[in-house]
Amino acid sequence: MNSLLKDIFGIFGIFDDVYKQLKKILIPPKAYSWQTLIYLSAFSGLMSSFAVSPIRDIIALCGWLFLIAGTAWYTTDDPLKVPGTNMPVGALITGFLVAVFAFGNQKDLLTPRTIVIWPTIAALITAIPDFIEGTDTDSKARIPKPEARQKIIILVASCMVISCWLNFYFVMDKWLQEYPSLLADEFQNSTFVIRRGERERVPENGVLILNQLQPLVESRISEKPWSEVERWLLEAKVNIGQLGKGIVDKNLSQFDEKELWRIEPRVTNTKAGGYVLDLLAIWTGPSAGVKGYFLKKSCRIEPLAASRNRSSSSSSEDKIAVAEISCDRTISIKRETPPPQQ
Question: What is the rounded distance in angstroms from the CA atom of residue 170 to the CA atom of residue 167?
Protein backbone atom coordinates (compact mmCIF):
# COMPACT_ATOMS: atom_id res chain seq x y z
CA MET A 1 0.00 0.00 0.00
CA ASN A 2 2.82 2.37 0.88
CA SER A 3 4.61 1.63 -2.41
CA LEU A 4 1.40 2.35 -4.32
CA LEU A 5 1.03 5.71 -2.60
CA LYS A 6 4.67 6.52 -3.38
CA ASP A 7 4.10 5.71 -7.03
CA ILE A 8 0.99 7.90 -7.15
CA PHE A 9 2.80 10.81 -5.50
CA GLY A 10 5.74 10.23 -7.83
CA ILE A 11 3.46 10.59 -10.85
CA PHE A 12 2.01 13.78 -9.41
CA GLY A 13 5.57 14.97 -8.82
CA ILE A 14 6.39 14.51 -12.50
CA PHE A 15 3.34 16.54 -13.49
CA ASP A 16 4.34 19.20 -10.98
CA ASP A 17 7.85 19.44 -12.50
CA VAL A 18 6.39 19.74 -16.01
CA TYR A 19 4.00 22.43 -14.80
CA LYS A 20 6.84 24.39 -13.23
CA GLN A 21 8.92 24.21 -16.41
CA LEU A 22 6.00 25.35 -18.56
CA LYS A 23 5.27 28.12 -16.08
CA LYS A 24 8.90 29.23 -16.23
CA ILE A 25 8.81 29.35 -20.04
CA LEU A 26 5.34 30.76 -20.61
CA ILE A 27 5.00 33.24 -17.73
CA PRO A 28 7.52 36.11 -17.89
CA PRO A 29 9.48 36.57 -14.65
CA LYS A 30 9.32 40.32 -15.30
CA ALA A 31 7.84 42.66 -17.87
CA TYR A 32 11.20 43.22 -19.57
CA SER A 33 11.74 39.67 -20.94
CA TRP A 34 11.79 37.71 -24.18
CA GLN A 35 8.40 36.13 -23.41
CA THR A 36 6.83 39.60 -23.44
CA LEU A 37 8.18 40.26 -26.92
CA ILE A 38 6.91 36.92 -28.22
CA TYR A 39 3.46 37.59 -26.78
CA LEU A 40 3.46 41.06 -28.31
CA SER A 41 4.35 39.47 -31.65
CA ALA A 42 1.45 37.01 -31.42
CA PHE A 43 -0.92 39.79 -30.33
CA SER A 44 0.21 41.99 -33.26
CA GLY A 45 -0.35 39.15 -35.71
CA LEU A 46 -3.86 38.62 -34.34
CA MET A 47 -4.73 42.31 -34.47
CA SER A 48 -3.36 42.72 -38.00
CA SER A 49 -5.83 40.10 -39.24
CA PHE A 50 -8.71 42.37 -38.20
CA ALA A 51 -7.22 45.61 -39.54
CA VAL A 52 -7.16 47.03 -43.05
CA SER A 53 -4.29 48.49 -45.04
CA PRO A 54 -2.20 50.53 -44.24
CA ILE A 55 -2.81 50.01 -40.48
CA ARG A 56 -2.58 46.25 -41.03
CA ASP A 57 0.89 46.56 -42.57
CA ILE A 58 2.13 48.74 -39.70
CA ILE A 59 0.86 46.29 -37.07
CA ALA A 60 2.34 43.34 -39.00
CA LEU A 61 5.69 45.16 -39.18
CA CYS A 62 5.69 45.64 -35.41
CA GLY A 63 4.81 41.97 -34.98
CA TRP A 64 7.80 40.89 -37.06
CA LEU A 65 10.12 43.18 -35.09
CA PHE A 66 8.83 41.79 -31.77
CA LEU A 67 9.26 38.21 -33.03
CA ILE A 68 12.83 38.79 -34.21
CA ALA A 69 13.84 40.57 -31.00
CA GLY A 70 12.21 37.98 -28.75
CA THR A 71 13.75 35.03 -30.61
CA ALA A 72 17.20 36.63 -30.56
CA TRP A 73 16.90 37.31 -26.83
CA TYR A 74 15.78 33.77 -25.98
CA THR A 75 18.39 32.00 -28.10
CA THR A 76 21.28 34.09 -26.69
CA ASP A 77 20.48 33.43 -23.03
CA ASP A 78 22.14 30.01 -23.16
CA PRO A 79 23.62 29.78 -26.67
CA LEU A 80 24.11 26.40 -28.31
CA LYS A 81 26.90 26.51 -30.91
CA VAL A 82 26.78 24.97 -34.37
CA PRO A 83 29.32 22.09 -34.22
CA GLY A 84 32.75 23.14 -35.47
CA THR A 85 31.94 26.86 -35.53
CA ASN A 86 31.47 29.78 -33.16
CA MET A 87 28.00 30.46 -34.55
CA PRO A 88 25.12 30.04 -32.09
CA VAL A 89 22.12 28.08 -33.30
CA GLY A 90 20.07 31.08 -32.22
CA ALA A 91 21.84 33.22 -34.83
CA LEU A 92 20.65 30.81 -37.53
CA ILE A 93 17.06 31.06 -36.29
CA THR A 94 17.19 34.84 -35.95
CA GLY A 95 18.93 35.17 -39.33
CA PHE A 96 16.18 33.12 -40.95
CA LEU A 97 13.48 35.36 -39.46
CA VAL A 98 15.33 38.49 -40.59
CA ALA A 99 15.73 37.07 -44.12
CA VAL A 100 12.04 36.15 -44.33
CA PHE A 101 11.06 39.58 -43.00
CA ALA A 102 13.34 41.44 -45.41
CA PHE A 103 12.99 39.39 -48.60
CA GLY A 104 9.78 37.38 -48.25
CA ASN A 105 6.37 38.38 -49.55
CA GLN A 106 2.77 37.73 -48.66
CA LYS A 107 2.35 35.00 -51.26
CA ASP A 108 5.55 33.09 -50.51
CA LEU A 109 7.60 33.77 -47.38
CA LEU A 110 10.33 31.33 -48.39
CA THR A 111 11.75 32.78 -51.62
CA PRO A 112 15.10 31.92 -53.27
CA ARG A 113 16.47 35.30 -52.17
CA THR A 114 15.51 34.46 -48.57
CA ILE A 115 17.46 31.18 -48.64
CA VAL A 116 20.47 32.75 -50.39
CA ILE A 117 20.91 35.63 -47.94
CA TRP A 118 20.16 33.56 -44.80
CA PRO A 119 23.73 32.26 -44.05
CA THR A 120 25.28 35.71 -44.48
CA ILE A 121 22.74 37.39 -42.19
CA ALA A 122 23.27 34.66 -39.57
CA ALA A 123 27.04 35.29 -39.69
CA LEU A 124 26.56 39.05 -39.27
CA ILE A 125 24.23 38.49 -36.31
CA THR A 126 26.87 36.22 -34.74
CA ALA A 127 29.48 38.96 -35.11
CA ILE A 128 27.36 41.78 -33.58
CA PRO A 129 28.15 41.00 -29.87
CA ASP A 130 31.89 41.40 -30.58
CA PHE A 131 31.24 45.03 -31.58
CA ILE A 132 29.38 45.84 -28.33
CA GLU A 133 30.60 46.00 -24.75
CA GLY A 134 28.75 46.62 -21.52
CA THR A 135 25.41 45.48 -20.14
CA ASP A 136 21.91 45.65 -21.57
CA THR A 137 21.31 49.08 -20.00
CA ASP A 138 24.80 50.48 -20.39
CA SER A 139 26.50 49.46 -23.63
CA LYS A 140 28.63 51.10 -26.28
CA ALA A 141 30.26 50.22 -29.58
CA ARG A 142 33.83 48.95 -29.70
CA ILE A 143 36.36 47.48 -32.08
CA PRO A 144 36.52 43.66 -31.72
CA LYS A 145 39.49 42.24 -29.89
CA PRO A 146 42.36 41.00 -32.10
CA GLU A 147 41.68 37.35 -31.26
CA ALA A 148 38.03 37.74 -32.33
CA ARG A 149 38.70 39.49 -35.64
CA GLN A 150 40.04 36.41 -37.41
CA LYS A 151 37.05 34.31 -36.31
CA ILE A 152 34.65 36.98 -37.54
CA ILE A 153 36.36 37.27 -40.94
CA ILE A 154 36.48 33.49 -41.44
CA LEU A 155 32.85 33.00 -40.36
CA VAL A 156 31.44 35.83 -42.48
CA ALA A 157 33.53 34.88 -45.53
CA SER A 158 32.54 31.20 -45.25
CA CYS A 159 28.86 32.06 -45.00
CA MET A 160 29.14 34.41 -47.99
CA VAL A 161 30.65 31.54 -50.01
CA ILE A 162 27.70 29.34 -48.97
CA SER A 163 25.32 32.10 -50.08
CA CYS A 164 27.11 32.30 -53.43
CA TRP A 165 26.75 28.55 -54.00
CA LEU A 166 23.08 28.66 -53.04
CA ASN A 167 22.56 31.54 -55.46
CA PHE A 168 24.41 29.59 -58.17
CA TYR A 169 22.01 26.68 -57.64
CA PHE A 170 18.95 28.90 -58.07
CA VAL A 171 20.48 30.57 -61.14
CA MET A 172 21.13 27.17 -62.75
CA ASP A 173 17.63 26.00 -61.87
CA LYS A 174 16.13 29.13 -63.45
CA TRP A 175 18.26 28.66 -66.58
CA LEU A 176 17.10 25.07 -66.97
CA GLN A 177 13.47 26.17 -66.64
CA GLU A 178 13.84 28.94 -69.21
CA TYR A 179 16.23 26.97 -71.47
CA PRO A 180 15.26 23.29 -71.03
CA SER A 181 17.26 22.29 -74.12
CA LEU A 182 20.43 22.75 -72.07
CA LEU A 183 19.61 19.41 -70.44
CA ALA A 184 20.52 17.66 -73.68
CA ASP A 185 24.10 18.90 -73.47
CA GLU A 186 27.17 17.26 -71.99
CA PHE A 187 28.34 18.15 -68.45
CA GLN A 188 31.01 15.50 -67.99
CA ASN A 189 33.84 18.05 -68.23
CA SER A 190 32.22 20.48 -65.80
CA THR A 191 33.91 20.99 -62.43
CA PHE A 192 30.78 22.19 -60.62
CA VAL A 193 27.76 20.63 -62.36
CA ILE A 194 26.97 16.95 -61.73
CA ARG A 195 24.24 15.25 -63.72
CA ARG A 196 21.93 13.02 -61.73
CA GLY A 197 19.94 10.52 -63.74
CA GLU A 198 20.02 9.75 -67.44
CA ARG A 199 20.82 12.58 -69.81
CA GLU A 200 18.11 13.78 -72.16
CA ARG A 201 19.32 12.50 -75.53
CA VAL A 202 17.35 14.87 -77.77
CA PRO A 203 15.94 18.24 -76.61
CA GLU A 204 12.16 18.08 -76.48
CA ASN A 205 11.61 21.57 -77.86
CA GLY A 206 13.68 20.81 -80.95
CA VAL A 207 11.74 17.60 -81.50
CA LEU A 208 8.48 19.51 -81.10
CA ILE A 209 9.50 22.04 -83.74
CA LEU A 210 10.43 19.45 -86.36
CA ASN A 211 7.42 17.21 -85.66
CA GLN A 212 5.05 20.14 -86.17
CA LEU A 213 7.01 21.44 -89.15
CA GLN A 214 6.80 18.14 -91.05
CA PRO A 215 3.02 18.10 -91.77
CA LEU A 216 3.14 21.76 -92.83
CA VAL A 217 5.89 21.02 -95.35
CA GLU A 218 4.05 17.92 -96.57
CA SER A 219 0.90 19.96 -97.17
CA ARG A 220 2.91 22.40 -99.34
CA ILE A 221 4.46 19.63 -101.45
CA SER A 222 2.34 16.48 -101.49
CA GLU A 223 0.45 15.98 -104.79
CA LYS A 224 1.33 19.47 -105.99
CA PRO A 225 2.51 19.92 -109.60
CA TRP A 226 6.18 19.15 -109.91
CA SER A 227 7.06 22.50 -111.47
CA GLU A 228 5.33 24.32 -108.60
CA VAL A 229 7.20 22.21 -106.03
CA GLU A 230 10.56 22.96 -107.65
CA ARG A 231 9.83 26.68 -107.51
CA TRP A 232 8.85 26.30 -103.84
CA LEU A 233 12.11 24.47 -103.09
CA LEU A 234 14.11 27.27 -104.73
CA GLU A 235 12.73 29.54 -102.00
CA ALA A 236 12.92 26.82 -99.33
CA LYS A 237 15.05 28.89 -96.96
CA VAL A 238 12.46 31.67 -96.80
CA ASN A 239 9.41 29.39 -96.91
CA ILE A 240 10.56 26.93 -94.25
CA GLY A 241 12.05 29.72 -92.15
CA GLN A 242 8.64 31.41 -91.97
CA LEU A 243 6.87 28.14 -91.12
CA GLY A 244 9.45 27.38 -88.41
CA LYS A 245 9.19 30.85 -86.90
CA GLY A 246 5.43 30.49 -86.62
CA ILE A 247 5.79 27.16 -84.82
CA VAL A 248 8.40 28.55 -82.41
CA ASP A 249 6.33 31.64 -81.60
CA LYS A 250 3.23 29.53 -80.97
CA ASN A 251 4.68 26.63 -78.96
CA LEU A 252 7.77 28.06 -77.24
CA SER A 253 6.38 31.42 -76.14
CA GLN A 254 6.75 30.48 -72.45
CA PHE A 255 10.48 29.71 -72.85
CA ASP A 256 13.23 32.30 -73.19
CA GLU A 257 15.08 29.87 -75.43
CA LYS A 258 12.66 30.49 -78.31
CA GLU A 259 15.13 33.03 -79.70
CA LEU A 260 17.90 30.42 -79.72
CA TRP A 261 16.31 28.01 -82.23
CA ARG A 262 16.90 28.63 -85.95
CA ILE A 263 15.00 26.61 -88.56
CA GLU A 264 16.72 26.04 -91.89
CA PRO A 265 16.38 23.60 -94.81
CA ARG A 266 19.05 21.82 -96.82
CA VAL A 267 18.05 20.71 -100.33
CA THR A 268 20.11 18.27 -102.41
CA ASN A 269 19.44 16.56 -105.74
CA THR A 270 19.16 12.82 -106.17
CA LYS A 271 20.22 10.68 -109.13
CA ALA A 272 16.60 9.73 -109.77
CA GLY A 273 15.69 13.35 -110.48
CA GLY A 274 14.15 14.05 -107.09
CA TYR A 275 15.31 15.93 -104.02
CA VAL A 276 16.28 15.28 -100.41
CA LEU A 277 14.96 17.96 -98.07
CA ASP A 278 16.62 18.05 -94.65
CA LEU A 279 14.73 20.02 -92.02
CA LEU A 280 17.20 21.39 -89.48
CA ALA A 281 16.45 22.81 -86.03
CA ILE A 282 19.74 24.51 -85.16
CA TRP A 283 20.51 25.31 -81.52
CA THR A 284 22.36 28.65 -81.31
CA GLY A 285 22.51 28.81 -77.52
CA PRO A 286 25.37 27.80 -75.18
CA SER A 287 26.77 24.34 -75.70
CA ALA A 288 29.52 22.20 -74.22
CA GLY A 289 30.91 21.62 -77.72
CA VAL A 290 32.46 24.42 -79.72
CA LYS A 291 30.49 23.42 -82.82
CA GLY A 292 27.15 23.17 -81.02
CA TYR A 293 24.48 20.80 -82.31
CA PHE A 294 21.38 20.60 -84.48
CA LEU A 295 18.44 18.25 -85.03
CA LYS A 296 17.64 16.82 -88.45
CA LYS A 297 14.66 15.17 -90.09
CA SER A 298 15.05 14.08 -93.71
CA CYS A 299 12.34 14.02 -96.37
CA ARG A 300 12.54 12.56 -99.87
CA ILE A 301 10.66 14.28 -102.67
CA GLU A 302 10.06 12.38 -105.92
CA PRO A 303 8.06 13.16 -109.08
CA LEU A 304 5.07 10.92 -109.57
CA ALA A 305 3.19 10.62 -112.86
CA ALA A 306 -0.53 11.41 -112.71
CA SER A 307 -3.19 11.59 -115.39
CA ARG A 308 -5.60 14.39 -116.24
CA ASN A 309 -8.31 14.47 -118.95
CA ARG A 310 -7.65 17.31 -121.38
CA SER A 311 -11.28 17.46 -122.48
CA SER A 312 -14.46 15.71 -121.66
CA SER A 313 -14.98 14.69 -125.29
CA SER A 314 -11.62 13.03 -125.71
CA SER A 315 -10.46 9.76 -124.25
CA SER A 316 -6.79 10.68 -124.52
CA GLU A 317 -5.00 11.51 -121.29
CA ASP A 318 -2.29 14.05 -120.61
CA LYS A 319 0.38 12.77 -118.27
CA ILE A 320 1.61 15.36 -115.74
CA ALA A 321 4.04 15.01 -112.83
CA VAL A 322 3.08 15.67 -109.23
CA ALA A 323 5.27 15.53 -106.14
CA GLU A 324 5.34 12.74 -103.59
CA ILE A 325 7.04 13.30 -100.23
CA SER A 326 7.99 10.84 -97.50
CA CYS A 327 9.74 11.87 -94.26
CA ASP A 328 11.68 9.88 -91.68
CA ARG A 329 9.89 9.05 -88.48
CA THR A 330 12.98 9.53 -86.35
CA ILE A 331 14.91 12.71 -85.57
CA SER A 332 18.67 12.58 -85.29
CA ILE A 333 20.92 14.90 -83.32
CA LYS A 334 24.23 16.01 -84.78
CA ARG A 335 26.83 17.54 -82.47
CA GLU A 336 28.64 19.40 -85.21
CA THR A 337 28.39 22.49 -87.37
CA PRO A 338 25.37 22.41 -89.73
CA PRO A 339 26.29 21.67 -93.37
CA PRO A 340 26.45 24.70 -95.70
CA GLN A 341 23.52 25.48 -97.92
CA GLN A 342 24.01 24.54 -101.56
Answer: 5
